[in-house]
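Lecture notes, unit on protein representations.

Consider one protein chain, 275 amino acids long.
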Amino acid sequence: MNLKTIKLNNGIEIPRLGLGVWKIRDGEAVRNSVMSALQAGYRHIDTAMIYRNETGVGEGLRQSGIPREEVFMTTKLWVRDQGYDRTLAALTASLERLGMDYVDLYLVHWPFADEEKISEKRSSTWRGMEELYRQGLARAIGVSNYTEAHLEEMKNHATVMPAVNQVEMHPFLYQKELAAYCVKNNIQIEAYSPLAHGAKLEDRLVAQIAEKYSKSTAQILIRWSLEHGFIVLPKSTHKERIEENFQVFDFAISSRDMQTLDGLHENFRTCWDPT
């Protein structure tokens, strides 16, 4: 298994470790986080319209001096922008804020719409996503927070199936059935909130495993996602933590310790439940 990159179902490569920027303020804060990540070796940045920091993300990339084509950039379509025409307009607006001509991955942020006939709205939204893909404004398209039922529904109308499903995933929320479904259907899982928003960094079993490998508990949780074949998106605003979170390619977790971590599942969600 290549731990650093993986090919999506349309053949493009995506770095398996990226920086998440949810709840990082636009302006200096997110610029510095992006620059620190790129200096540390990250080549994948994940943002969204609703994070309201796309402008700073784009500025951070430009100020880093790293060529645009070397960085995999993701942003997302928010709920109020669902529907065919609004989907097209939404990415145009995101590209203007980012200061970019295209994104590498564009995701439908949530599997619901803010009006009746939700399944029809999801269908028209996805038609818009497919059009953006055909136009080359997004090199790949996918979804976020989709369940197996939402993905099955897509088979009724999609001509391009999602390359990615970005969901909350960590040992304390190991969505094993969803992960297996996505593997079977050639959809790559992206794990957001892989550190459970810090709520489980002091867990006794995780700490014991971290001590065994001379790693931090955060590094163990990130590596757990990599061992399962996921793309993983830890978030931090601290340069030292950003650098530490990237130092996860020089060790492997044993199968026995992976079983211990898998057994920590307790349906512990730090974000809204899409079911």
